[in-house]
Amino acid sequence: MISKNNIVDQSEYNEDWISSAWGDSGNEDLLSKRLLNPRPRVARAIELSSLKKNIYLLDIACGRGEVPAIVCQQGGYAVGLDYAESSIKFAQRVKKIHDDGTQGAIELARADATKLPFLDESFDRVTMLDIIEHLYPAQLEKMFCEVRRILKPTGYAVIHTLPNRWVYDFTYPLIHKIFNGIPPDPRGSFEKKIHINEQDLPKLFNTIRKSGLHQRIWLEQHIPSQARWNSGNDIYKDNRDKVYPMLSRWPGRIMEVLSETPLKFLICNDIYGVLWKSDVAPSLPKLPMAFTERLICHFISPKQ
Description:
Blueprint lengths: L14 H8 L1 H7 L9 H10 L6 E5 L5 H8 L3 E6 L2 H14 L6 E6 L12 E7 L7 H14 E11 L3 H14 L10 H6 L6 H10 L3 E7 L2 H8 L9 H8 L2 H9 L5 H4 L2 E7 L14 H10 L4
Parallel strand pairs: 1-2, 1-4, 2-3, 4-5
Antiparallel strand pairs: 5-7, 6-7
Helix pairs in contact: 1-2, 4-5, 9-14, 10-11, 10-12
């Protein structure tokens, strides 16, 4: 049983958090009729979701409602779920703009990710983007079990979480000793408050395995592309304002090259995964082979 004391209070995810997490201009874009231009991290998750018309997708921790809006634009049916009142209110504004009845449809639900209010085998896709690090271990295990329950046998889930804890624990302190301009810990005080379960690959692999889901998880590098995408459009009032200008130029290109080597474990900050319930894998998008990630997970993760 999950204690109420082991839950991040939903009031932490307020209007100020929405503004700081995505930036004011990014939020303005989402609340306009302009074609959506998602951040590289989100665009990658959408690509992995293989959206098509009439697909049923559940976006857990929908935040401001960006993923449901994209699904709707592509003719799918999306349910955006979040437990924070401010997130649902913002997503309702997004729904009014993007769900005009001409393509797909958006529904919103305020609910707990560990107790999904849906029937068994209801969804073709489930997305869990940037929620994993916000849940305590017991909550995370329950969410994965719930996702297994509500996924169709032919469906699958897409996950994304950051940071890769090894980057923050080992790489940033080392780089700080060489370049004083790089902070030894990029986390802000608020991030430390709400990121109560940051992951590394073996840790995440083991949690997913306990839920009975099959998986492929791997590392990618999106910080430089995120910096180029932002291009100074937003001021976040945190360490991104220090790092993005530098990584949008040649240091970011070097980081991307190094991220294709085994150094990825200490450089790549984005963890992606695709999860499914059937012993026979459903029709999946093209996934990275991720040999090194798989070896690390099997050798380091504790056995059940």
